[in-house]
Design goal:
2 strands, 432 residues, mainly alpha, two-stranded antiparallel sheet
Length: 432
């Protein structure tokens, strides 16, 4: 931290002499004491506007040897340097006073004969051009106004510009683009607010009609349940569906006139709609509904009959094919049992050779009649089981007696691929 200057007055005087240009310092050296006394007369002069301007006497320039040097001492806590802005104000006021003093001296000395200007000064162009009385008065007024504005702090001499703080001077015109942007911002904000209000209104309308739809659906469901009581689960598929219309002919489904807008009322005639919906149903329409029900019933009956016929035909074909195979197997004679093996399975089968049938009731005649009928039947009505039976009979007929041998039960030697069977033992006492 830099300590404050113990003697700021001497330092300020030295700085003031250094700030002056060299031409001014040379001129000040030539001033006499009489000029200094004349300058003192201007101290306390009242200017227009009631402002008293105190004009300090110009400091006399000193040589570097005569400049007093402050003796080092401890800094006083009460002595503090002025801020940067007041220093500049003081310097500007002093400079303006000096300029006015020089102008007054030039005016007072204009009555005396002046020396002709030297060629060197004329060639350099350092001297100001001569002014007439009117221009001198204007210059004096400008200087006085400048000093007064400095005293009233109307002139901004701060280092930082006011534009960075968002401030503008009185005579500065605003930026046209900024003005347009502010106007657009206001307009767009109004549009956004209006759109938001419209969105809120539509949300309220949507919520109202959604609630109205829920209530209406609940009322319709209650009325439908009251008109059509639920039937039992068993009788549900056996009953005819009946639609009972309400007594008011669906007029209760029409919207109320208070719910419709004026534009919709002009385009739609509710009275005509009520008249059309309230007309009694025609008898022909009822008969058409009965006819449709009867046609559906007949179609279901025919479909059930066809399905039953197909299943019966398939079952009969299967049974008759089994009968045909059994009859073909029993019609041929079986070989006698082998005497070498008493454990042959054929010995336990009943003999069918001696089976006698009454004349005209032979199973062969029955099968022949059935086969004759099957031949006359169209091929599309012959089932798969019947076809298999016919092929089996043809194979047996073509093979002759050897064909039956494939299905004949023959005995084998003991221990050669035969399944061990229990030999019948001695009969018991209770079986005798």
């Amino acid at each position: 931290m830099v300590p404050p200057d113990p003697n700021p007055t001497a330092k300020r005087k030295a700085n003031d002499s250094n700030l002056l240009p060299p031409t001014t310092s040379k001129r000040m050296k030539k001033e006499s004491r009489s000029d200094a006394s004349k300058r003192k007369r201007h101290v306390g002069e009242e200017q227009p506007g009631g402002l008293i301007i105190v004009r300090a006497p110009a400091p006399r320039p000193l040589s570097p040897e005569n400049v007093p040097r402050p003796s080092p001492r401890l800094p006083s806590p009460n002595s503090q340097p002025l801020p940067r802005t007041p220093q500049i104000h003081s310097l500007l006021a002093w400079s303006a006073e000096q300029a006015m003093s020089r102008m007054a001296e030039a005016t007072s000395s204009s009555a005396k004969p002046l020396k002709p200007p030297s060629k060197s000064s004329t060639s350099r162009g350092t001297g100001p051009p001569p002014l007439d009385d009117r221009k001198k008065l204007i210059l004096k007024n400008v200087q006085e106004d400048f000093i007064r504005m400095l005293a009233e702090q109307k002139i901004d001499i701060s280092a930082s510009s006011r534009a960075s703080k968002g401030e503008t001077s009185e005579g500065e015109a605003p930026n046209e683009q900024n003005v347009k942007n502010r106007a657009r911002e206001v307009t767009f904000q109004q549009h956004i607010n209006r759109a938001q209000a419209e969105s809120d209104a539509w949300s309220r309308v949507d919520q109202f009609y959604h609630q109205y739809e829920v209530i209406s659906n609940a009322d319709l469901e209650k009325r439908r349940q009251a008109l059509n009581p639920p039937s039992s689960a068993k009788a549900k598929g056996k009953q005819r569906e009946t639609l009972q219309e309400p007594l008011d002919d669906w007029s209760w489904l029409l919207p109320r006139e208070g719910d419709l807008s004026d534009e919709f009322k002009e385009q739609v005639d509710l009275e005509l709609i009520k008249q059309i919906m309230s007309d009694p149903p025609e008898p022909l329409n009822r008969e058409m509904e009965d006819l449709q029900f009867k046609i559906d019933s007949l179609f279901s009956y025919v479909n059930s009959a066809v399905h039953t016929t197909d299943m019966t035909e398939a079952e009969l074909d299967h049974r008759f094919s089994l009968l045909s195979l059994a009859l073909s197997a029993r019609s041929h004679s079986l070989p006698p049992p082998s005497s070498s093996s008493s454990t042959s399975l054929s010995s336990h089968l009943p003999l069918t050779r001696g089976a006698s049938h009454p004349p005209g009731e032979s199973p062969r005649d029955i099968l022949r009649a059935l086969s004759r009928i099957d031949k006359e039947r169209p091929p599309g009505k012959i089932g798969d089981a019947a076809r298999r039976a016919v092929r089996e009979v043809q194979r047996v007929q073509e093979g002759g007696s050897g064909g039956v041998g494939e299905r004949r039960l023959t005995g084998l030697a003991i221990g050669v691929g035969a399944t061990p069977r229990k030999v019948p033992g001695t009969p018991r006492r209770r079986d005798r």
